């Protein structure tokens, strides 16, 4: 298990989506495994582009939220903060209804940086987006 708090449960992370972008787009955490975190967002008026398909920026919000919160769950937040340093997203196919679900797994968990792989699938398990997020780990002031 990679999490800082070994007894961490899915309910413990729901508060991290309140009063921010994640809540605004309807993000819901769905799974917390020993080395992964999953969440989903609806494909609706909050996340669509004018063509009626999922906005690439919404995929990036899902990916960055998963990786950033994943990093926050790995570090001692009493001593450190984590901030996104770089995100890359390849949009593979569109989604026009239902939900898309992101799964974040760590590629690298270092002292000063973390790198996350995030794959986003639609309800039919078709790959929508592949993203890589680099997170900086900074001392808390």
Automatic annotation (TrEMBL):
The organism's place on the tree of life at top rank: Bacteria
InterPro entries the record matches: HotDog_dom_sf, PAAI_dom, Thioestr_dom
Signal peptide: none
GO CC, one annotated term: cytosol
Sequence ranges assigned to domain Thioesterase in this UniProt record: 51-129
MF-aspect GO terms: 1,4-dihydroxy-2-naphthoyl-CoA thioesterase activity
The keyword Zinc belongs to this UniProt entry's keyword annotation: no
UniProt KW keywords: Hydrolase
Keyword Hydrolase among UniProt keywords: yes
Pfam families referenced in this protein's UniProt entry, alphabetically: 4HBT
Family: Belongs to the thioesterase PaaI family.
Record protein name field: 1,4-dihydroxy-2-naphthoyl-CoA hydrolase
Organism: Pseudobacter ginsenosidimutans
Organism placement in taxonomy: Bacteria, Pseudomonadati, Bacteroidota, Chitinophagia, Chitinophagales
């Amino acid at each position: 298990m990679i999490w800082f708090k070994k007894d961490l449960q899915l309910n413990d992370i729901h508060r991290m989506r309140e009063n921010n972008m994640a809540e605004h787009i309807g993000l819901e955490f769905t799974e917390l495994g020993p080395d992964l975190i999953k969440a989903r967002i609806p494909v609706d008026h909050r996340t669509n582009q004018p063509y009626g398909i999922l906005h690439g920026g919404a995929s990036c919000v899902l990916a960055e939220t998963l990786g950033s919160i994943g990093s926050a769950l790995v570090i001692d937040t009493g001593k450190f903060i984590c901030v996104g340093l770089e995100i890359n997203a390849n949009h593979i196919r569109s989604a026009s209804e239902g939900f898309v679900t992101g799964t974040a797994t760590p590629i690298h968990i270092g002292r000063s940086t973390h790198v996350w792989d995030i794959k986003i699938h639609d309800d039919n398990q078709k790959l929508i987006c592949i993203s890589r997020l680099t997170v900086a780990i900074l001392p808390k002031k």
